[in-house]
Amino acid sequence: MECIACNRRFKSEKALEKHIKYSPAHAPKDYYCSTCNRSFKSEDALEQHLQNSLAHTHTPKGNSKSFKNKAAQKQHAPAHAHSSSKRWSIYPTHHEHVSRLLEEECLHYNFHNVDTAKGCISEYDTNIMGRFTCHNDSCGATGWSSRQIAITIREYNGGKYNARVYHQRCGGCDSLSRPVLDDSYAERVAYRIKKWNGIFMGAPPPYSSKSKGPHHNDLCEGCKDGHCSALSSWNS
């Protein structure tokens, strides 16, 4: 049995039907920003929106919007204020990559869109890698890379999961930044879910806790929330 769209072969018709039903490759491409109530055609388009939209920046760049009076400006401010205090995010746009890795072991999970520990049956803290950008125009820093981005992976009943990714603060101005993640996110999440399902796993995905600079606990929201594995010696 073959899935022509994915160029993959399956041992039985049942396995092929299961693949078509659960694989993100056969799902409608609808990447959604709940903050702005907008949909995007691709993951890249959504990620670009999250990085560049005024509604997701600490200090909006190029915000030339004028207001008739201070009251109008104050009324407009809450649309941007939430991003400056948001300390973590979940990344449903990365589910497709996680799903592909899980399919290697015939595991099929859906993304749990509610960022809560309520109903969670398994939880694990680890670190991943990515890059942050400082959106504060008055700050001289442009951004920084981190190999110790705190993340909490959760499993829920009904074959669901999510992962809370903690933000970090700019060392220059203390503003919060949401990271752009690399492949380590999907690899770490899929690895942990496979282990929870009793699948024998060898060494964890390539990972290095060594970085060009020290990990600053006061700039890491994961450390402040008690969920950063940098607080103790890392283990798989």
TrEMBL record:
It holds the Pfam family Zn_ribbon_3CxxC. Residues 1-31, 31-61 form the C2H2-type domain. The keyword Disulfide bond does not apply. Residues 49-88 are annotated as: Disordered. Keywords: Metal-binding, Zinc, Zinc-finger. Residues 67-85 have a biased composition (Basic residues). SMART domains: zf-3CxxC, ZnF_C2H2. It comes from the Eukaryota. One of its GO terms (molecular function) is zinc ion binding. Residues 49-66 have a biased composition (Polar residues). InterPro entries: ZAR1/RTP1-5-like_Znf-3CxxC, Znf_C2H2_jaz, Znf_C2H2_sf, Znf_C2H2_type. This is C2H2-type domain-containing protein. It comes from Blastomyces silverae.
